[in-house]
């Protein structure tokens, strides 16, 4: 059965999906009013016991589309069978994704957590440390393929006679991450009959192969969505900026609160992540970082901190800069490269108002992938790209492609920004950018690694035996890779363009403005622009003096 849901109008609500009251209560608590399209279609099929192939991207609500019926089935079975067993297995390609899935299930089981227990065993702690958790036979296990295989081989879990549902999420990534053999090996530990669900953003050949391997006569749900939200929901801006000016413009936009709401800033290399972080840090603009070279725990932490609002800005480097052909040499290399490339795929960044391409992405897919982090669900969003002259051809290619997709002429609007009006910012930024030397970047990266070593569970006992080693690592912690000058955190009145002073009530409210300047929150500025649009990022023309 193949369903193509492109234009179908939703008709059901959650109450019509025959879900347990406890699930409905949890859904209500989450504030979900109605099922997404994929949930409406997938939940009944999974409850019927069918194998299902779901093609949908992150943001479609696919996690709950498979998690809700899984929990429902467990609740129903518990009424008849009291024996505690592992019933559901959810396999995902990265620890971040596992944690994300686990968090969704925890939210959905708030009203039945005694009946349905879930654990995430993807963290690389000692296998034996996780064994007691597995001995308790949780109902649902979330895990990466390699971790799962380790436990199966160690005999820490038996699934042959209990498992009822296997769910493989982000199936296409599993293959590109090089998990093919692990998956095949895992299948030998499973019962001969079980219900299987495969979720994937694409139906690549790899996914087709996996489908043949695990699915039996599946229903195929394809969610035909446009790659990005329509221009009425997602505004695309470009801002002409040469390399030397990009940092100054970003600094001014953030400090003048012309960028409001949660923001992802994309750069093309890992080093640029750190460079930009250290640059903004000097002006009291806190950011967190996401890149492929960070250990998984740090990446998880960064996403959590961003989603929970600890940071309003995350700086991410995406894959393309790492995808030079020479990187792929051996199978081992392929795996490394692809793991890197998928760093932000599938991750659910929540409530992102703005995506800023500090470096213009190197191809169309990358642009779509980045811009697609905002304007999720029914929310508005803005993608603002800084475009240097050398990046113009890339931008034109992307615009051409998107114009075709959306059948509209002026998709990329020009963000009017006159740098000469913010000369003071430019001046400060120049020094700030120069202060972040290559050595400072290297040291920041080393610092990150040291911190990870200190936090590493596996080294805990080593440090207990060798406290002096821990001490010396801790001393390194104090290292500031760029000297911070406290005065840079404030924005002196004289560098604020006169056109903005009135709007911001500078003079009367200067002190407050300075204090608030350290955050990119939306609350500080009460301007006529605030009321102007639901669009969280405002195109503001700074007129030149006559
Ligand atoms: P997913 O595609 O599963 O990563 O979900 C994307 C986002 O949609 C998550 O932040 C979910 O919390 C949210 N979500 C899932 N289902 C619904 C729904 N029915 N209504 C509103 N938000 C939802």
TrEMBL record:
<keyword id="KW-0690">Ribosome biogenesis</keyword>
<dbReference type="GO" id="GO:0005829">
    <property type="term" value="C:cytosol"/>
</dbReference>
<feature type="short sequence motif" description="Q motif">
    <location>
        <begin position="12"/>
        <end position="40"/>
    </location>
</feature>
<feature type="domain" description="DEAD-box RNA helicase Q">
    <location>
        <begin position="12"/>
        <end position="40"/>
    </location>
</feature>
<keyword id="KW-0539">Nucleus</keyword>
<dbReference type="Pfam" id="PF00270">
    <property type="entry name" value="DEAD"/>
</dbReference>
<comment type="similarity">
    <text>Belongs to the DEAD box helicase family. DDX56/DBP9 subfamily.</text>
</comment>
<dbReference type="GO" id="GO:0003723">
    <property type="term" value="F:RNA binding"/>
</dbReference>
<dbReference type="Pfam" id="PF00271">
    <property type="entry name" value="Helicase_C"/>
</dbReference>
<dbReference type="InterPro" id="IPR001650">
    <property type="entry name" value="Helicase_C-like"/>
</dbReference>
<dbReference type="GO" id="GO:0005524">
    <property type="term" value="F:ATP binding"/>
</dbReference>
<keyword id="KW-0694">RNA-binding</keyword>
<dbReference type="InterPro" id="IPR014014">
    <property type="entry name" value="RNA_helicase_DEAD_Q_motif"/>
</dbReference>
<keyword id="KW-0547">Nucleotide-binding</keyword>
<keyword id="KW-0378">Hydrolase</keyword>
<dbReference type="GO" id="GO:0003724">
    <property type="term" value="F:RNA helicase activity"/>
</dbReference>
<feature type="domain" description="Helicase C-terminal">
    <location>
        <begin position="252"/>
        <end position="423"/>
    </location>
</feature>
<protein>
    <recommendedName>
        <fullName>RNA helicase</fullName>
        <ecNumber>3.6.4.13</ecNumber>
    </recommendedName>
</protein>
<dbReference type="GO" id="GO:0005730">
    <property type="term" value="C:nucleolus"/>
</dbReference>
<keyword id="KW-0067">ATP-binding</keyword>
<feature type="domain" description="Helicase ATP-binding">
    <location>
        <begin position="43"/>
        <end position="221"/>
    </location>
</feature>
<dbReference type="InterPro" id="IPR050079">
    <property type="entry name" value="DEAD_box_RNA_helicase"/>
</dbReference>
<dbReference type="InterPro" id="IPR014001">
    <property type="entry name" value="Helicase_ATP-bd"/>
</dbReference>
<dbReference type="GO" id="GO:0016787">
    <property type="term" value="F:hydrolase activity"/>
</dbReference>
<keyword id="KW-0347">Helicase</keyword>
<keyword id="KW-0698">rRNA processing</keyword>
<dbReference type="InterPro" id="IPR027417">
    <property type="entry name" value="P-loop_NTPase"/>
</dbReference>
<dbReference type="GO" id="GO:0006364">
    <property type="term" value="P:rRNA processing"/>
</dbReference>
<dbReference type="InterPro" id="IPR011545">
    <property type="entry name" value="DEAD/DEAH_box_helicase_dom"/>
</dbReference>
């Amino acid at each position: 059965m193949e369903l193509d849901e492109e234009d179908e109008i939703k008709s059901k609500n959650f109450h019509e999906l025959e879900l347990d009251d406890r699930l409905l209560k949890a859904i209500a608590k989450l504030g979900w009013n109605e099922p997404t399209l994929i949930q409406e279609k997938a939940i009944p099929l999974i409850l019927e016991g069918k194998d299902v192939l779901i093609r949908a991207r992150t943001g479609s609500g696919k996690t709950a589309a498979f998690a809700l019926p899984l929990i429902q089935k467990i609740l129903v079975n518990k009424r008849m069978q009291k024996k505690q067993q592992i019933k559901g297995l959810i396999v995902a390609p990265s620890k971040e994704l596992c944690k994300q899935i686990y968090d969704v299930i925890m939210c959905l089981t708030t009203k039945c957590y005694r009946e349905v227990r879930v654990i995430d065993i993807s963290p690389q702690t000692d296998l034996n440390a996780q064994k007691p958790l597995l001995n308790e036979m949780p109902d649902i296990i979330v895990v990466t393929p390699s971790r799962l295989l380790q436990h199966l081989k160690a005999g820490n879990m038996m699934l042959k006679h209990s498992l009822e549902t296997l769910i493989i999420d982000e199936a296409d990534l599993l293959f590109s991450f090089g998990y093919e053999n692990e998956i095949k090996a895992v299948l030998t530990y499973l019962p001969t009959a079980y219900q299987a669900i495969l979720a994937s953003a694409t139906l690549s050949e790899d996914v087709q192969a996996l489908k043949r391997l695990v699915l039996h006569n599946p229903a195929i749900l394809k969610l035909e969505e446009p790659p990005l939200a329509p221009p009425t929901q997602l505004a695309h801006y470009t801002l002409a900026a040469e390399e030397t000016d990009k940092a100054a413009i970003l600094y001014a936009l953030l400090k003048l609160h012309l960028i409001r709401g949660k923001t992802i800033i994309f750069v093309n290399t890992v080093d640029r992540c750190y460079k930009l972080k250290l640059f903004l840090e000097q002006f009291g603009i806190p950011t967190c970082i996401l890149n492929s070279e960070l250990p998984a725990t740090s990446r998880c932490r960064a996403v959590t901190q961003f989603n929970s609002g600890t940071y309003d800005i995350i700086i991410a480097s995406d894959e393309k800069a790492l995808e030079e052909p020479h990187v792929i040499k051996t199978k081992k290399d392929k795996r490394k490269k692809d793991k890197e490339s998928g760093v932000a795929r599938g991750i659910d960044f929540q409530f992102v108002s703005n995506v800023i391409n500090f470096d213009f992405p190197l191809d169309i897919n990358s642009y779509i992938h980045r811009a697609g982090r905002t304007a999720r669900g029914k929310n508005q969003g803005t993608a603002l790209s800084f475009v240097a002259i050398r990046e113009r051809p890339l931008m034109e290619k992307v615009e051409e492609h998107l114009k075709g997709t959306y059948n509209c002429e002026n998709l990329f609007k020009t963000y009017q920004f006159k740098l000469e009006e913010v000369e003071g910012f430019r001046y400060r930024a120049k020094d700030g950018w120069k202060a972040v030397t290559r050595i400072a970047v290297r040291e920041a990266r080393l610092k990150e690694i040291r911190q990870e070593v200190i936090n590493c569970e596996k080294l805990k006992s080593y440090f207990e035996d060798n406290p002096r080693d821990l001490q010396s690592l801790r001393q390194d912690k104090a290292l500031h890779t760029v000297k911070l000058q406290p005065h840079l955190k404030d924005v002196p009145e004289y560098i604020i363009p006169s056109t903005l002073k009135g709007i911001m009530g500078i003079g009367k409210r200067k002190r407050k403005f300075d204090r608030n300047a350290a955050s990119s929150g939306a609350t500080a500025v009460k301007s006529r622009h605030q009321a102007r649009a639901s669009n969280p990022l405002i195109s503001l023309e700074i007129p030149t003096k006559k």
